[in-house]
Amino acid sequence: MDGMPATVLVVDDSRTKRYLLVSWLTRAGFTVLEAENGAEALARVEVDRMDLVVLDVRLPDLSGYEVCEQIKVRHPAMPVIHVSAHAVDVADRAQGLTRGADAYLTEPIEPEELIATTRAVLRYYQARQRAELLAERLLGLADTTVAVHAAPTFARLLEAAAEGAAQIFKSPAAVIAETFDGDCLAGICAAPGEAATVVPWVVDDTGVPTGATVRVEAPADWALVDWPAGDTVTVAAAKLREDRAPLYVVVPTATQTARTP
């Protein structure tokens, strides 16, 4: 899996079983947190950042089904895998799944089965999150397109484009273009929802090919806004014709690499 390792919370009151589950998941490359009961699990979900919960059905304080239900109410996008130490009938398994669990494993659980199920569930959620993010960005792009087309001046067009980019990427954004008179201007927006401003800005267009290119650069090279500390910037350049200067869109690189397990 690409990106940072996924974080899994293992919830089980049996120290032995918890140790086994934690060992298998850790060996498979996951970051693992632990909880002994339902109340501790619900508290950890609110405090720690995690990607998936492996949850015993029988806990000393709350039923695993109830804990799963509460997790899903608060965090609908957090996957839950039930594990049970007891042979369960169809009704139990059905209850687990209908109350929000994404998978149900019964003992004896094999390490390969646990890891494969964990990865499969994470893959599904990762795909769903990407689809939701894409849909949100497409809606933002549609709104921005309308605003750009309605802009009465070139400066207002750049402001609308920068405001739209900040809204789409949920981050600071800059849009740089050349006027028909040959002046290079930058529309800059410090954060989504804020008003953009326009400033003069000179870009060295040497070597930029016709078409669309994307590159990662140092924030100091695009010191238009306060970029997030510790990140680079991603610069998209669109050069439509050989005799025209490119249009640039600059956003923090982290916006392009949504965290995945």
From TrEMBL:
Molecular-function GO terms, alphabetical: phosphorelay response regulator activity; transcription cis-regulatory region binding
One Pfam family it belongs to: Response_reg
Organism of this sequence: Micromonospora taraxaci
Residue spans crossing the bilayer: none
SMART domains (alphabetical): REC (SM00448)
Protein name: Response regulator receiver domain-containing protein
UniProt record, GO biological process: regulation of DNA-templated transcription
Key words of the record: DNA-binding, Phosphoprotein, Transcription, Transcription regulation, Two-component regulatory system
Residues recorded with modification 4-aspartylphosphate: D56
Family annotation (PANTHER family): REGULATOR OF RPOS, TWO-COMPONENT RESPONSE REGULATOR ORR33
Any one cellular-component term (Gene Ontology): cytosol
The Response regulatory domain, residue ranges: 7-122
Taxonomic placement: Bacteria, Bacillati, Actinomycetota, Actinomycetes, Micromonosporales
